[in-house]
Amino acid sequence: MTALIVPDDDAGQRAAIDALRRGAIVALPTDTVYGIAVALDTPGGIEGLFAAKHRPPERGIAVLLADESQAPKIAEWPPPAAALAAAFWPGGLTIVVPRRSDVELPAALTGGAATIGLRVPDHPTPRALAAAVGPLPTTSANRSGGTEAPDAAGIVAQLGDALALVLDGGPAHGGPASTVVDCSVDPPRILRHGAISDDAIEAVLAG
Questions:
Q1: Does the domain formed by 4-206 have CATH 3.90.870.10?
Q2: b/e per residue, 161-176, with b = 16+ CB within 10 A?
Q3: Out of 31, 65, 112, 201, which residue is the most buried by the measure of CB atoms under 10 Å away?
Q4: Apex CA 11: angle with CA 8 and CA 17, to 5°?
Q5: Do residues 48 and 38 touch, judged by C-beta distance below 8 A?
Q6: 3-state DSSP call for residue 159?
Q7: Could you give the CA distance from residue 125 to residue 17 in angstroms, rounded to a whole number?
Q8: Where does residue 87 rank: exposed (0-12), middle (13-18), buried (19+ CB within 10 A)?
Q9: Residue 7 above 90 pLDDT?
Q10: Residue 203: which H helix or E strand, with range?
Q11: Quick one: which H or E segment has residue 153?
């Protein structure tokens, strides 16, 4: 069954939240590319995301948050991570931190690693969905190895049968990928150069 395309408005977001709560996969706009997401507590949900993308299961995916307050619920939250979040969230920064050992998370989420990547995107839609259903495992809306779908129609063409719903927020914004900083080590280190400059990251960490 091909995914339903709905406008990214209040009604559309309510439909997406309902779909996520049912364990379905939805596509949503972010501050860069479109993503596909599933509720964190969906049995087999992460595996479903991988299957939709034909993505290797050993590669973990990031989790989008409504705000920083959700981070300590699933991960350890050291002072450098908190400082970076205060400076750059919402925005193009993914912070890698140790996952909490006392919180059960799907093994597939992190590809077997003891760390997890978290981000608060600079777009109201993923934040609203995460506020409603909790931290959202999210990956780009494309077949693995292919180009990111630029709009709702492109998502349906690539992934439509695997999705319940696509929130249509117009063409993807594009732009650089998020900077990734590993705060599970001391001192933290930059794993991927991206939207936030190295100098800006280092200034906060030195501060």
A1: yes
A2: ebbbbbbbbeebeeee
A3: 65
A4: 85
A5: yes
A6: helix
A7: 11
A8: middle
A9: yes
A10: helix 198-206
A11: helix 152-159
Whether the pTM exceeds 0.90: the reply is yes
Q: What confidence tens digit (pLDDT) does each residue in 31-68 have?
A: 999 999 999 999 999 999 999 998 877 677 999 999 99
Bridging pattern class, strands 136-140 and 35-37: antiparallel
74 φ, ψ to 5°? -125, -5
pLDDT for 160: 86
Q: How far apart are CA 164 and CA 19, in angstroms?
A: 7
pLDDT at residue 60, as a whole number: 78
Asked whether 169 and 157 are in contact (CB, 8 A), the reply is no
Q: How confident is the model over 9-19, as a mean pLDDT? A: 98
Could you tell me if 47 and 54 are in contact, meaning their C-beta atoms sit under 8 angstroms apart? no
- Is residue 149 pLDDT above 90, yes or no? no
Instruction: Let me know how long the chain is.
Output: 207
Structural domain boundaries in the chain: 4-206
The answer to whether residues 34 and 146 touch, using CB atoms and an 8 Å cutoff, is no
- pLDDT one-digit tens code per residue, 150-187: 999 999 999 988 999 999 999 998 889 999 999 999 99
